[in-house]
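Technical note accompanying the year-one report. For the benefit of new consortium partners, we illustrate the data format agreed upon in the data management plan: each record pairs a sequence with a structure-token string. No post-processing was applied to the example shown here.
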Amino acid sequence: MADVNRGNRPLSPHLTIYRPQLTSMTSIFVRLTGNALLVAMLMIVWWFVAAAAGPDAFATADGFVRSWFGDLVLFLSTWAIWYHMFGGIRHLIWDQGYMLDVEKSETAGLIMIIVSVLMTIFTAIVL
């Protein structure tokens, strides 16, 4: 059935007037890190396939993976793994009905950011 009240409804907030919240931004970054990890996984799969294909293919892939750009991708992927994991843990906590108020949700977002950075530094130093 047609909506006859279409002109009387309020418009949704536009990005220019809507202030992003920490919880929404951390949730968006969880999705972005998940997609970025797919790209990094393809790079690692390419490296393994090149290793099976022969020395010339492996030399090309290995040169790329060990370049400064490859190192940067792998380092950022390490952060993305930690961040994505802690984001998933935060969502599991929310699914249980805990930390749903604004203060606790923002605190969980800050903890997620700080701990993911610390764990990335720890992983880079240890490994």
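Partners are asked to follow this layout when depositing records. Helices lie at 22-53, 55-65, 68-95, 102-126.
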